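Q: Hi! First time doing this. I have a protein sequence and I read that you can turn it into a structure. Is that right? Here it is:
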Amino acid sequence: MKAIHALVLVLLVFMGASQASAQLASSMLSPFEGVRWNEQGTEVKIDGKWYRFKAIDSVPLDALLDESRSAFGDDWKIGFEEKVVTLLTNLGQSPGVYVGLELEDIETGDRIVKGHVQMSTNKRQLAQIYRRKATRLKLLEKAKNQRVQRDHMEIEPDSEYWFMGDRPRPGRRDAVGANVIRSPTPTRDLEQFEWLIENRWALFGYKPFDYQRMADSIRWRTAGKLTIRDFQLQIARLIVYLGDSQAVVGRWTRLLPPAHLPFLIEQTESGRFVAFKTDRSGFLDDEHPFITALDDESVEYWLNVAARITPHTSKAGQRRSAIRNMRYFIYLRSENEKVGNANPIKITLESDQGDAITIKRDLTPRKPIYGWWPKPVEPKVLDGNTGYIRLATMNNKSGLFDMIHKSMAVSRETQGLIIDLRGNVGGSRDALAALYPYLVDSSSAPRVVSVSRPMLDEDSNPRDLSNLYLYEQADPRLNRMEQAVAESFLKTFTPAFEPVKPENFSPLYVSVLSASEDPAVFHYEHPIIVLMDSSCDTGTSVLLSAIKGMDNITLMGTHARGGTDLVDSHTLAFSNTEVFIPAMITYNTDGSVLSGEGVEPDVFAGQVATDILGKTDTVLDRALDLLKEQRSASRP
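A: Yes, that's right. Below is the predicted 3D structure, encoded as structure tokens:
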């Protein structure tokens, strides 16, 4: 009997799987061999001929497009082209293999009804191929007008930029990366990249660098065959000089060989480097926690090599990223022409007293992860009636607003507050909007907390940056008092850097925050210490900049990074290389540049070796001590 029950269960599971497979297969059907979009309407290719599309199974185009926007967001065009079965199903239809189409002849305007058009996966694939070809042609056409053509320099081997043209080995053996591109393809992409630097990089001219000589080093050494991977790595080396953590080649880590250090490295306040296990359960060697060399070269030496693929942001931010990029050690070897055998690596470690040992370890194919650190914890009250709030993220998608409100409620009766932003790499500015009303009295006037100068989009239109709480001074989404405060502020605001090509930019945008009218939101009047480190980026840096200098607030830790939180994606047409370029200048309210510069703490405090393992937290201890001093000083 049990055997029969088991057989029935297997059959039911099989039938369920078969039905799921059939549903998946049916969702991959399409009646279109191609779709194109223009001002006259949406056009579809049926049996080799183009028509203007009107309806499918009596469902009009507008209803399909509305549903596609709802279901697929920014990918709504792809949704219509490839997921028409899903759209019809969502609208209450039950499409079969054959559908009825209402079309219009493009030349005559005559109404055409095709009542028995077969859908198939082959047509869907043809539509995909057409879209890829159309996208590529559009890119190539666009790139014709996005090129800097100039006289080029001959680069000598002793040039400091000679390394730009290196082709490090080994690399990943993926099909796309191994494709060979030939001259003049790299040259044309370099001309386009130079155009993007001069016309689509918001901070062009702020910190000049010799991008033309760097590009010419790549040009000079790209004669003959060049794989896409090699060229993209060369662009990755060049783009780091844009000086922003967000200026990168898309998915650049996939270009690197999969052989990594089997441990992690951090730097302490004293400047020494700690090697520790990936799960933070201990040091690589408990008696010798400090690492001084790899393959007989100093850690500082390898950090200089890692700087070739590390964005040149604030010094602390660049140092943090370079330390993390040391994980790609086989790549660093190839940059230094120390390829050799992949294994083993020679590691020199030291004790507290400077006694040295040498050990060997094999590289690992899996990249070790640093993870969130310190680990996220619930809000709590520490000794001395001190509130503690750990903000590990900046995005409200994870319920950040509710979490901040609950956290502040926990800390309401405390006599001091620590807000821990260490390890918070940024994102949105939601945490600033949620936290700010607790930092000001309910009667306080609105305050400008951030100023930015965004570039116009590629169609020369202003951007809606309300998701970043940024508005033009007269934007109706600001109330009258906020508009008046913004207007008064901008009359005396003097930016330390103005765009080289102001015609590519909007006027200044401001972020104006106000006290809350919610009775549950209170003004926290006691001393607050905000913990920060060199992980703090984009929106977290904006938060730190906004609250720096406010009454009762002290920033403690290490320098924040200051990455730009508006970045545009561009594609180099011939190699299909995606590059991300900062499209906004963000200022501190005193006019100095925040983008790429970061924020200095009021009190410097770095970690010690045992902090890295979670055995101690000396930065938190110092914050508690400082709060005690501040409370004592405020007593009459």
